[in-house]
Amino acid sequence: MSSIIAGFSFAYKLRRKCIVSKELLEMCDLMAIELNYSVSESSKIIKRLSNEPSLSNLLFLKDFNFENINISTELNDVDNERINSLFKNIGKVDVNSMLELLSTFKINMIESNRNYEEYYKTHSRLYIAYAVFGGIVVSLVLI
Question: The pTM is what?
Fold first, then answer.
């Protein structure tokens, strides 16, 4: 039974990576809109993003602190570094440079999202199948 739960847990973690990476792409679009049209203070942009329902899985936006930027998500370390770098530059560069940073970040996240989606499609069923098979083997051994 525990192997089945572990398999579903691994599959769920893979799915979460896909969701978070998609929401980061959405965040880039929303930030670009904010920067292009309202040119608000960075704290106001973050506050608006934290209230956006389509970004509900980006929990770091809720308690974002400009003094101590150390964002950690379900994504891999390279993507987390990119997120940290992006947020460390918010408000420190002009609007055009920030839009360029967003564009570069988005290009990288599109590739990462593609990799997460592909990995999820190929491995999520495998985790579940191994989990079920492992549960059956343990049951047979115990009988």
Answer: 0.82
